[in-house]
Specification:
Length: 187
């Protein structure tokens, strides 16, 4: 029996601190993945919290047929997609910097490089946000979270062939968006 299965059994047996260990084990990884789906730290925190609450409430339905984090990610992605559909916010770079507090910091000769890198990261984030939900989910799980095709298929409840084709299309779409963004930049 693996650690997750033991913690799940303990939680179902009434030891709620065992679920706390599962939360500690997966909260950062889940947050980082969800952040790329919903776009803002505040929304990502809300989605992750809702996912853990829902996982706790529905823990007895966990079948042990897949890994716990796969089941948890599936819950989180469903919540994240529902959340995005309800909100559909549009934000500017300035608003994002104000709300997240993330500003490039000048530290000597490489300040220009740091600023350029921060701008590139922002451009990639905005390009990912322009992808359709189905393409964004597959791309984030594969390229950012490093999930294998089988895990992505399980999380999103899709055949592996569909995961592969969506990932291919997502990469092409992301490339096209980034090419357009780079062509618009002043030289």
């Amino acid at each position: 029996m693996n650690d997750d299965a033991l913690l799940i059994d303990e939680t179902l047996g009434g030891k709620s601190q065992a679920f706390g260990e599962l939360v500690q084990k997966y909260q950062d990884r889940l947050y980082n993945t969800v952040l790329h789906v919903v776009g803002t730290p505040h929304d990502a925190r809300d989605v992750v919290q809702d996912a853990f609450v829902q996982a706790f409430v529905k823990l007895e339905t966990f079948q042990h047929a897949s890994a716990f984090y796969t089941w948890l990610y599936r819950i989180a992605f469903n919540i994240a997609i529902s959340h995005r559909r309800r909100r559909r916010p549009t934000t500017s770079i300035e608003w994002n910097r104000e709300t997240t507090g993330q500003e490039p910091v000048a530290s000597g000769a490489d300040a220009h490089q740091q600023l350029e890198q921060a701008e590139r990261c922002e451009q990639v984030q905005q390009a990912i946000a322009q992808l359709s939900e189905e393409h964004r989910a597959v791309l984030v799980l594969r390229e950012i979270d490093g999930c294998c095709y089988e895990t992505i298929a399980e999380i999103l409840d899709l055949p592996i062939g569909t995961v592969r084709s969506r990932l291919h299309r997502a990469r092409l779409q992301l490339r096209d968006i980034l090419i357009e963004v780079l062509q618009q930049e002043p030289s």
